[in-house]
Structure formats: C-alpha cells, structure tokens
Amino acid sequence: MKEQLQNIRERAKQEIAATATLQDLEALRVQLLGKKGELTAILKSMGKLSKEERPVMGQLANEVRGDIETALTEKTAALEKEALQKELDAMPLFDLSEPVKLEEGSYHPITLVQRQCENIFKSMGFTVEDYSEIVSDYECFESLNIPKHHPARDMQDTYYLTNGQLLKSQTSAAQNAIYKKYRDALINDGVPIKAIFPGRCFRNEATDACHENTFFQMEGVMVDKNISISNLIYFMKTMLSEVFQKDIKVRLRPGFFPFVEPGFELDISCLICDGEGCPSCKHSGWLELCPCGMIHPEVLKAGGIDPDEYMGFAFGLGLTRLAMMKYGVKDIRDLNSGNLKALSQFTDDK
Fold first, then answer.
1. N or C: which end of the chain has fewer CB within 10 A?
2. pLDDT given for residue 185 in this prediction
C-alpha cells in the first residue's frame, strides 16, 4: 500500500503539471480524489491492514492527499492567470474609459475682464471685496436712500424671494457693509476707504442684444476728505485706458440714482461699431457703461460716516458690457449662453 500511495502522488503531480485546461484539471481531480477516485479506493482497503500499519498508512495517505490538493490549487491558479492574460491580449489596445478628446479650457471673457480690472484698481490702492448674491431689502434699497414705495425701485425689476430677501439687483447693495467695515480706519487713522466689489446681479429684464437678466458689475467707492468728481473721472479713464491699451472716448451726462448726488451716466464710445451705431449700442454710437456720482449724504450716514466731514464717489462698472467692448461680442446673450463656439475665441487667455 505504501508503494501504491507513493506512485499515485508522483503520477498525479506529473499529470497535473501536464494538464492544459481547467476542464481537464477538474476531470483529473475527480479521477484522483473523487468518491470513486484512485486514492479513495486505496483508503477503503485500509481495513485489511493490521492495527500497527493503519496509523502509519493513514498518515501517509493524508500527506499524499494534501500534496495532490496543493498541486491542484497551484495549477488552477496558473491556468486561470493564463486564461485571463489571453482575454486581455484579445482586447482592443486602448482604454474605453479614457476621454476620446480632451480639449484645454479657457477663462470666460467676463472673468478675464474682471481680473484685469481688479489688478488695475489694486495698483491704485483699492481693496477687492466679495459680497453675497442674496441680500436684504435694507442692503439693496433702504441703506442706499431708496425707502419702501419709492418710485426709484421701478428702475430695477427685482427678483424677490419667498423669505423676504431678494437677488441682488445692483452691486451697490454692498456699499453699506463696506462703509461699516472701514469707517473706523477712516475716522481714527485717516485711511481713505477705497474698495471695489465685483459680483453677479439679477433683474427681470426683457432681453435683447444689450440687456440680460443676469449680468456682472463692479462697484467701486472712495471716501475721504476733499473728494470730487475729478477724482472719479481720473480713476475711470485710467482704468479704461489700461483695459483697452489706448485712450478711450467717454462722456458724462446727468443721471438719477438715489444713492449719489449729483449723479451721472458715464458712457463709452461703442468700440464694436466705432461710434457709427449698431444694435449693441441701440444705434446711438454710445454704450452706457458706468452709472456714477458723488455718494449721497444719507448713504454715508447709514454707513456711520459724517457727510459734513467726509465725501466720496461711487460707480457701478458694467463688467459684462466692458467684456463686450473689449472682445467685440455683439450680443450680450452670448456671454451667458454657454455657447462654446461663441466663446472659444478667447482660448488664448488662460
């Protein structure tokens, strides 16, 4: 029996090593270790052995079974690995999950103009502030000398929310918070308030080539002693000359805004039609770019600043329209459309 067990072990290892498929390997396992297998048949005959031989042969039989099972396990793993490799070799030579075409993106033209303006104003000593798009009625109107039921509110078709707040219709909504943030430095240390705060605004507009219901502005304020309109004109012309890299023709005309007194409209000669007239400028040759003026005394009071001692100017620069002029975008609606064909011309500026 000892010779039979040793022979089975040696022959099994050779046959297992020579097996080429998982199916043939399973058949060999049944032949060797199955209920009617060769090793099983030998074990059934152990009853004929003496009491002294049974433990010895039993231990040897277990060793033989263990060796055969180990050889089967190792061969199974090898055949499975081989089968997997064959399957991988048959697959296409590319990764189906990899993007077919990955184009490089670019910044939106409004983002480019905003960053340029921020850098220009920072070089002139202005700080850049951020502000919420959802504001209170007080922030957007009452703190700006526009009390409830004032007809000036009709100038802005405002989106009101169910909780009583509203979508910011003008970046001027940040003015009151800015004055309160910097007034102590102004009053105690004589540091002028010089800040810009760009942001997205919302109005229920009838859209056309030069009007959108969502647009971007950049509010700017400067408060100190002895501030005049001349300071406002200087900063605006400097900014526009830097943006367009040339002298820009501008004009000031009277305009009514409750939070400034006097108030003006700063217009820029339309760069799309060179002042000849087009749909973007309503065929006037001029494009309204920047409502501005001297800050109203009541607005300064609401911010905790004495209007008898301090004065300042404020402006609301239209970033969306500035981007139109800089990049020659004829229809303001293209900027919010997500139309990659219309915006792809700006891929040179990353």
1. C
2. 95
